[in-house]
Amino acid sequence: LQGNRQVDLSRCEIVTGFKFQVPEAKTIQYFRKVQNRGSMAIAVLNLAVFMGIKDKHIAQVRIAMGAVAPTAVRIKSIEERLTGLPIYEADNPQIYNEIHKDIAPISDFRATRNYRLRVAQSITRQAVVQMLG
């Protein structure tokens, strides 16, 4: 994806598949979609988290969000702060304060920019804590 409704395919190309690595046994995955009401298909924001735990520490983490930028984005500022952290420290609200560095939400008919920023920070922390709980 290059932007909203923009892909890097020529007129004659189609996507026929994709590959991904199967996660190791000691990993946790999480997905959440925030929407205004159940009948609305389009998200205000969505979140996907992948985490690997080793010796009561966060060994690896990948966080991605949608509807907070022209395309889905990785939340690398928080990934970096969580990687290597003891799991009992992941509840610290300070870890999630810099999420604005990785997202660029807009205000539209679904939600305001400020609402998306607050929700992004809040649900990311909730997801990590729930995954480790």
Please give the count of helices: 2
Shape: globular
Mean pLDDT: 90
Oligomer: single chain
Number of strands: 4
| Sheet having the most strands | 4 strands, antiparallel
Explain this structure.
With 133 residues, the chain is α+β, with helices and mostly antiparallel strands. The protein has two helices and four strands; from the N terminus they run ββββαα. The chain has helices spanning 76-82, 113-132, and strands at 27-34, 45-54, 57-66, 73-74. Strands 1-2-3-4 form a four-stranded antiparallel β-sheet, with helices on one face. A hairpin with a 6-residue loop joins β3 (57-66) and β4 (73-74). The chain is globular and about 50 Å long.
Entry summary:
This protein is an alpha+beta fold and 133 residues long. It has helices spanning 76-82, 113-132, and strands at 27-34, 45-54, 57-66, 73-74.
